[in-house]
Every structure is written in C-alpha cells, then in structure tokens.
Fold this protein.
Amino acid sequence: MIAVIAFSAMNVMAKYLSTMHPMQVVFFRAAGSLIFIFPYMIYHNVNRVGNHPKLLLLRAVLGLISLATFFWAIQRIPLGSAISIRYLGPIFGAILAVYYLREKVNIKQWISFAIAFAGVLVLKGFDYRIDLFSFSLVMISAILVGMVFVLIRYLGSREHYLTIINYFMMTATISGLFFISYFRIPIGIEWWSVAGIGIFGLIGQLFMTRAFQLEEASILAPFKYLELIFSGLIGYFIFSESYEVVALLGMILIVGGMVMNVYFKEGRKGLKVEKV
C-alpha cells in the first residue's frame, strides 16, 4: 500500500510538471533516486556492473523509453486514462514470456487479456480527449513495459535487484543530459514536484520490491491497481479531470481483466517485479 501511494504521488507530480520537456521529468525521476541508491550500493559493496551488462543495459534503455513516452502521454491526456492503458504492459509481457521464457498461458488468461483489450478499445473510442498520438505513446510505453518484465524475470535470479534498478537510473540520468538544452529552471511550487518525483519513485520501488520478496504476486498484484483509484481521485481534485460513464467502464474492464489474469495464472507463483 505504501508503494502504491508513493507511485500515485509520483505520477501526479509528473503530471504537474506538464510544461517541462518529458526528458527533463525523466531526469528528475532518475537522478532523484540515483543519489540515494548509488552511495548505498558502494557502502554495501553491491555489484554495480552486474553479471549480464548487455541485458541490464537493454532493460535500462527499454525502461527509459517506456517512462519517457508515459510521462509525455500524461502531459497530454487525463492521468487515469494513461495509467489504465499502460496496465496492458503485463499482457505483452506474458505473450513475450511464452516465446522467450517458455511460460504457459492458459485459456482463462487469454480471455482475461481479451477483456482488458476490450476496455482499451472502449476507453479510446469514447474518451475523445485521447488523441491518436497520445494513445500511441501509451501503447508504446505498455509494450516496452512488457518487454522489461520479461527481462526482469530472467535477470531477477541472476542479478541483485539494486543492480537492475541502478542501471536504469544511470541510463535515464545520463540520457536526460543530452536534452539539457530543452531544460528550464523549475518555478515556485514546481520545486516540490522536482524533489518529490525522485523520492516517491524510490520509495515505491523499494517497498514494492520488498513486498514481492515476502508474498506471492497473485496476492499482491491486485493492490497495485489501487494506483488508478488514488491517481484518479487526485487528478479529479487537483487537475479537475472527470470521466464519462463509458470511459469509466473501459477502465473497469482493463483493471478487471488484469486482476483476472493474476488469479488465472497457472501455479500462482510469486515473481519479483520492478516499477518502470
């Protein structure tokens, strides 16, 4: 629950920085966490290079693009809509895992995937604030999230979880510097969002990772979808975002399909996951 609240706060702060270049927001997100993680890794002598540097770098690059496209999308469309569509990430991850990790997907899971996709079609078709370009940004983010999930599943038992996170933070921070000509100095209350986006992102990562170390994914995953509720409520009260009944139905179908997938998954074995 702490992780969900932290990630919700991070998303709202990213939304509040809508007038900034998306890569500047990514930079703040990554650098704000890196200044805490890297010294900790040095102090505890955690392997910073890792055993699979190429795969770690690939995971970092895919995660970077996914986060950048997501932040760009939430600058353009309602927060709840963007988060809902991005929830399709685990579906793409499951499909890719069938081929690359030889994981099995049963018929009930395919049905749950179809329900979630139907929700996306309803949301896109009836929420006219979601233009095609913004929709494409979120879908790209979701597909890349799925690819990241597969890489994390492979690397999870082979690398320290902080090594995986550190690669992403380093890559995002360095990449952000290439867009420094588009950066601007935060103004007034924006400084709170600049500071908070990295801190809350780090809190979310650490608590989510620890939670999945202690309990099965099938038990914990549904709690993650409370992020949509928290972000939606904050978006309503802070950004005056509202939704038509049909758009809300689309969100319910997406979340419902993903929750069904969790319970239909064979084995009900926990998987360590990381927030992108």
Notes: Residues 111 and 257 are 8 Å apart (CA to CA). The longest helix spans residues 190-214. Residues 2-268 form one domain. The chain has a mean pLDDT of 86.
